[in-house]
């Protein structure tokens, strides 16, 4: 009886095991780690993404939530994420965004672009834009209650290492 089939099967099994280094160099495993790999903080995306896809040749992405996601932030901003959001991602840029709206006064406006400039995040609604400090986005808000959730633990991120979870 030949051992060759067993040896081949063992080699194939070992070949398909992830290497410890592969976790750092292969494509990200979550939408949040994808954001970090393009130099964005995780907090521009609320908790609850159930899946995502990315075409690495074009940067086209989709992120999927179970349902739409709405919450308010301090400063009277209300945000709404549809169950599917999409756009194009590249280093420090999210463009042609769809599925994200912000309420300004009485109007709901589509956020169409997000650009990171150093320690600032610029959010554009097409006709105007607003800048915010990157420290505002080191944690992800939760659908329904934003950062004001009483029943859930607020995740924090180590600011000495850009966008790396401290937990």
UniProtKB/TrEMBL annotation:
* InterPro entries for this protein: At5g01610-like (IPR036758), DUF538 (IPR007493)
Q: Which SUPFAM superfamilies match?
A: At5g01610-like
From which domain of life does this come?
Eukaryota
Gene3D superfamilies tied to this protein: At5g01610-like
Q: Does the keyword Signal apply?
A: yes
Alphabetized, the UniProt keywords read: Signal
Secretion signal, residue range per the UniProt entry = 1-23
* Stated name of the protein: DUF538 domain-containing protein
Q: Which organism is it from?
A: Brassica cretica (Mustard)
């Amino acid at each position: 009886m030949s051992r060759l089939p067993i040896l081949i099967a063992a080699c194939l099994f070992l070949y398909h095991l992830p290497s410890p280094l592969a976790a750092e160099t292969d494509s990200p495993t979550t939408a949040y780690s994808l954001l970090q790999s393009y130099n964005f903080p995780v907090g521009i995306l609320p908790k609850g993404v159930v899946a995502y896809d990315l075409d690495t040749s074009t940067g086209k992405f989709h992120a999927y939530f179970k349902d739409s996601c709405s919450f308010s932030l301090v400063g009277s901003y209300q945000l709404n994420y549809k169950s599917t959001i999409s756009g194009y991602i590249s280093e420090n840029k999210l463009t042609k965004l769809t599925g994200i709206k912000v309420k300004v006064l009485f109007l709901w406006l589509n956020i169409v672009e997000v650009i990171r400039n150093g320690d600032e995040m610029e959010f554009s609604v097409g006709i105007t834009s607003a800048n915010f400090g990157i420290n505002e986005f080191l944690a992800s808000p939760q659908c329904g209650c934003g950062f004001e959730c009483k029943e859930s633990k607020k995740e924090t991120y180590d600011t000495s290492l850009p966008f790396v979870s401290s937990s």
